[in-house]
Please model this.
Amino acid sequence: MKYQIMIKMLMLLLSRRKVRAREIAERYEISLRSVYRYVEELAVAGIPIDVARGRYGGISIADTYRLPVGYFTKDEYNAAINALSAMSSQVNDDAIVTALEKLQQQVKRERADTAVSGNIIVDGGTWGDTKKFSEKMAVCERAVNESLCLDIDYISRSGEHSRRIIDPHVLIFKQNVWYVYAFCHTKQSFRTFKIGRIKSARFTGKGFKKREISREEIPLSFGYRSDELVELVLEIEKDKLPDAEEWIGIDNIEPRGNKFIAEVAVPDDDGLVSKILGFGGGVKILSPESLRQKVTSAAQRVIDSI
Model:
């Protein structure tokens, strides 16, 4: 009985996205204590459920969450849709109609996998992440297009976890990474959020009026000041050219004799040394000398650890 109710609670949240705890208790004839206990167990199972107290509170599920692709097979989806279609033509029941619509929408979402909109397909997730990134992209895109506030769980590069209410204004794509430029209610200013670092996102149910911003106002350095960038001059072996082009862009590389030379400014952070080491000797640092020494020291530590 317990697990049947938990499944019903999950289905209710998937259809409504936000429900008050008392309504769930009355619907399934259980105590409020049991409701919160079941919510906790669903959260432990990895389902992004959130509990908000107060007048406008309730139990909600992240808008990025969908049932696993294998929850129903294609044949099971079609069988359920056909059965409900037959019933809806004979029985005047609104519940059957809405259930049919939800199943049809789920089928459309499963077929859409990585499609964000129109003729654009985006799969910026990591290997093995088949849908989570594209679902976050779809939520962010809808929030931008329809001026809808988002409640996001965000993990910064330093590992800091924070909860933000944001007004997404525009999506940005730079160096194969997607960002959302949004007004942050916590900081009371515009911030740039890397979509890959958004753990979950929920629509708050509220809209916002977009502020007037120009392209020049958007900080495309993404938090890096000019003094945090380093001017690189690299010598690139031919067999490493495709990887280097994807990293720093074709326009920043030119042939010189039998070699390829790149001149570009990049963030001088901890990832830079690892990135250069990843080329396995196929990229030589011509300048600055300080970076060359860092890479040499890091390579020696790798050798010493073997």
